[in-house]
Amino acid sequence: MAPRQSCKRTNRLAAALGPVCLLLLLPVGPARALLGDSDENFGLDGNLRTVTAATVNYDYPMLFGPDNASDGLSQSLLRLVAGGSPAEWLLYELHAVQSLNFSSSSASLTLGPGLFAGGATHTRYRAATLRWDWAEEADLQASLWLDRAQLKFVLPFADLTIGRQAISFGKAYFWNPLDVFLAFDPRSFDRDYKAGVDALRIDIPFGDFSGLNLVASLGRRIGGLGSTVDPDDFKVSWHGSALMARVFTTWQDWDIAVQGGKVYGGYQLGGAASGELGALAVRAEAAYQFTVDREELPNHLNLVLGVGHRFENTLNL
Asked: Which has more confidence, 307 or 60?
């Protein structure tokens, strides 16, 4: 690497990390909303999450280049959350996300794991992109996108949610065969926020611990690297959309759920159970997917079984 190129990358890293360092120097105080109250008509809040790493490379030119220079990596997400409840029967929520990724090694921008869940590359079950990639170079990527935009209507017999929303099915750890709507990457350690999908959801309660979930989600066909085959917004297809039904209840202290319907690229039928066997906590999920074409995986079964125990000293194993 030429000295001028190395200096240029150092300047880019300083520009990427500068705002983060300034925020870390701010005085620490009690957590409160930036503006208003989301339990009332309007509230605005947000957070900044960042991971920074550096490596001192050993002598291996095939991997690190002829000069074996040290590398730096930074991944940051700034999320602004607006929401409120102007009436007892109406709630709304908006999430705007700004991402900034820097790496002196261009390969780590695309090959590294997603440290933060809900990155801008999520496009499945989204009829509209609602994203602006305003910087995309070999060592620097920056994007701004709308991660959630939903309205929730609280009706006497059901809850109706429309718009870009986070939907989670299943209770297994790390891998969730039933969670078809942008499940967390097993390598993502930050799971406070899940990416939203463009959907209409109806939740009908049967009792305190049982009910019916109906989800209709609009989506487009996705290419191999996560990009849409047709870049135009609202070019939805049956192949990329979903129509799911899920029934859940509690039986003898066990939580049981069964779901099925149209998913991306095919159809799914599955079930889950979670409860206790003596001193062991048990979580089980299974789903069989029927594929409609050979562009996707062939027909297959996903099965997850997890056991655990919580000790008196609060250790969870």
From this structure: 307
d(C-alpha 94, C-alpha 80), whole Å: 8
Euclidean distance between CA atoms 265 and 238, whole angstroms: 8
CA angle 123, 115, 15 (to 5 degrees): 95
Compute CA distances 104 → 51, 136, 155, 173, 307, whole Å.
15, 14, 53, 34, 41
How many helices and strands in the chain, by DSSP H and E? Answer: 3, 14
- Domains annotated for the chain, with CATH where assigned, are 3-308 (2.40.160)
Q: What is the chain's length?
A: 317
Candidate from 7-21, 37-51, 253-267 with smallest mean pLDDT: 7-21
Q: Are 270 and 291 in contact (CB under 8 A)?
A: no
CB 70 within 8 A of CB 56: yes
Does the pLDDT value for residue 54 go beyond 60?
yes
3-state secondary structure of 4: helix
